[in-house]
Amino acid sequence: MRKARIILGHGSGGKLSHDLIESLFMPRFINPILQAGDDSAVFPLTDSDRISKRRQLSEDEIAFTTDSYVVNPLSWPGGDIGRLAVCGTVNDLAMVGATPLYLSAAFVIEEGLPISTLRRIVTSMQRAAKEARVKIVAGDTKVVEKGSADGLFINTAGVGLLSGEVKISGSNAQPGDMVIVSGTIGDHGIAVLSAREGLTFSNSFKSDVAPLNHMVDAMLRTSHKVHAMRDPTRGGLATTLNEIARQSKAGICILEEQIPIREEVAAACEILGYDPLYVANEGKLVACVAPEDAERMVQVMRKARYGHEATIIGEVLSGPKGRVIMRTRVGGTRIVDMLTGDMLPRIC
Amino acid sequence: MRFIDEFRNSAAGRGLALRIQEKKVRPTNLMEVCGTHTVAIFKHGIRQILPEKINLLSGPGCPVCVTPNADIDKAIALAKNAQVILTTFGDMMKVPGSYSSLSQVKAVGADIRVVYSILDALKIAENNSRKSVVFLGVGFETTSPTTASAILEAERLGIDNFFFLSVHKLIPPAMRALLDSDEVHIDGFICPGHVSTIIGSQPYEFIPREYGIPCVIAGFEPLDILQAIDMLLEQISAEEPRVDIQYRRAVRKEGNPIALKYLSTVFDVTDARWRGIGIIPKSGLKLGQRYERVDADCAFKIVTRPPKEAAGCCCGDILRGVSTPHECGLFAKACTPEHPVGPCMVSTEGTCSVWYLYEEEGEALSQTGEPQANNKPVTLKE
Amino acid sequence: MCLAVPVRVLQIDSLEALVEVGGLARQASIMLVPDVQVGDYVLLHAGFAIQKLDEKEAEETIRLFEEIAEGMGD
Known about the structure:
By secondary structure, chain A is an alpha+beta fold. Chain A has helices spanning 15-29, 32-35, 81-94, 115-132, 187-195, 213-222, 236-248, 263-272, 291-303, and strands at 41-44, 61-69, 75-76, 79-80, 99-110, 135-144, 152-161, 178-181, 226-230, 251-255, 286-289, 311-317, 324-327, 333-335. Chain A has 2 domains: 57-166, CATH 3.30.1330.10; 178-335, Phosphoribosyl-aminoimidazole Synthetase, Chain A, domain 2, CATH 3.90.650. In chain A, the strands form 3 sheets. A 7-stranded mixed β-sheet of chain A has the order 9-11-8-12-10-13-14. Chain A has a 5-stranded mixed β-sheet with strand order 1-2-7-5-6, covered by helices on one side. A two-stranded antiparallel sheet of chain A has the order 3-4. In chain A, helix 3 runs parallel beside helix 4 (115-132) and helix 6 runs antiparallel to helix 9. Among the domains of chain B are: 5-64 and 178-245, HypD, alpha/beta domain 1 (Rossmann fold), CATH 3.40.50.11750; 315-367, no CATH class. Chain B contains 17 helices and 11 strands. A 5-stranded parallel β-sheet of chain B has the order 2-1-7-8-9. In chain B, strands 4-3-5-6 form a 4-stranded parallel β-sheet, sandwiched between helices. In chain B, a hairpin with a 3-residue loop joins strand 10 (267-274) and strand 11. In chain B, helix 2 (35-43) runs parallel beside helix 17 (351-367). Chain B starts with 9 loop residues before the first helix and ends in a 15-residue tail after the last helix. By secondary structure, chain C is α+β, with helices and mostly antiparallel strands. Chain C has one domain (5-71): SH3 type barrels (Roll). Chain C has a 5-stranded antiparallel β-sheet with strand order 3-2-1-4-5, with no helix packed on it. Chain C is elongated and about 45 Å long. Chains in contact: A-B, A-C, B-C.
């Protein structure tokens, strides 16, 4: 192996993905907007050369993001690639505090895909867009030869509007902030895995794919002290908390006992040898909120459709900088690192 | 989850820790032989709640780690054969052989499938009758009976395109080799609970008898491990070394006689090479004469280049408990879980990987002068 | 490489069983523990039940841990 090649782990959202971005993409595309490293780029509608490194709060900032969806199988209990493609991009916009408005959708379709499948997925996108109150305003369709794509890939890009008062960034978590998670972790990853061949359980798990923008709206109306927010998708809660800790140059301590997890998801993780902290979510968010507003925030989130099980799971500390630690049930502590490589079922 | 959650109780954990802390002990080296114990110990933060005088050493019980390069190279050579579908556990994918890893050859087109159970591999063989499906059988006595069962099952069903590359190994001979090398001082063994569900407690009896070292067969939940440590300290202070079973709900003295019968039906015990340790007499399982036709080693002409070890890699010393990862010049520098040099960094239960993920940075943590979560009460309102 | 999880046997069909843990059910081979009964707990490893769980012993260990927990006063 003299020539380095892309392996699946580069797409897992964990350390390899970060290394690839930092060593290959970032140096070539570098600019202050990209460098912010949040789920969406935030910028005023002006010539990029006039944007300084320090973000000025102004009325007419927009948020912009894009994401490609490649998932096998195309549908699973609780969702499909269409709903995911809309919700994922809507959530990326919501995580910087923007109100999502417009989406584009590009389809790369493998020759031979049944039209009925495509119709079902596009209908599901229509429904998700309606729920999130966004419009799909541009699109593209490409068909590739059999074998060049796995059924269907979807890319969506999205634009949202920011109000001048909002400054939410993964780099803005403050020591003392409470870390809130909006519900049970791992539901999506386990649902997709169990729908895949070979890991079949007789129960059907339900994925949590959902648009979170309405809950975020309610949160931002409750408090101006939401400092950092992110949706723990690929790489799971552990990877997202590490991103926030690194970008904010702070430490994060979470309590094992407080982390909400469905019993059947916990059981699947036991059997497959997964750590639920690393399993993907598509309808959950993590927020770092000033302590004086945290309790109220949890109450508000619990009233939202997708936040019934919101709870405080830990706290932002001044250090150790860039690290996430967990107090275990039996009173020990451990480091919680980013996901390394990709997740494989293991018997070890 | 019944019979899981009860063994993670927080108050009982603190109670057991207190019990251990109250015991007057001299510096004590306890070795957890099994890699699954290593992971559990780090995952539950058990090292931090033990008194400093109790030092936990990780032993050679990570089957991925002790598989020598030559065997990985063989599996890779088989996977490159266009007629072959190679099936294996997820644990094996990223382990570096001499020149490549399974995950790297999969990236360039080899048909390699990760399975949760060998029964999934059997199904793949059933559904792909024109291909040869090879299962890379790795693991200790916990896992080898599942391979034996599948071989018997394939025979019963008349599936003739299912082959096996057995690198299965046995734990007690490795413990003896470790003791005979006399490189590390061990005051007590935390013996592998799930291996023991199969082999029982008898195979460890030689350890207290010949070497005077206490053994406790332990479960894998945090309370199990703490109780096993407490039981070992009792034995040490009473100077009455024997084999105790902490994991009584799963381990019987005689083990699982049916599993043992299947093992002896299908496999012959053979000398085997362990990475870092060398050849240990009677420590491996190879397919017996009756099953030679499904032995991938006999059925395929496997050509590999001479194996080579990565320069500077200390996995061997680490597997014997002679060195800790920090004593390896590559650790956390040239060798990380994303770019592993040796198998101890790649396997989920490899000592280096576990230290890197849970501890290495944890130690760096205490040097920053920042408040440690351990001491700082986190204030949470319910 | 020795993860195993305690699961409860729901149904038995020759040497195949439906087993359950945490509300989650899946198939497992009981080739290695052919005499298990519906309702028994077994340890599941890589798709196989490898040993029967002795509930009486488990309860005894749990009782001991409960006593220790009570001693901690919470």
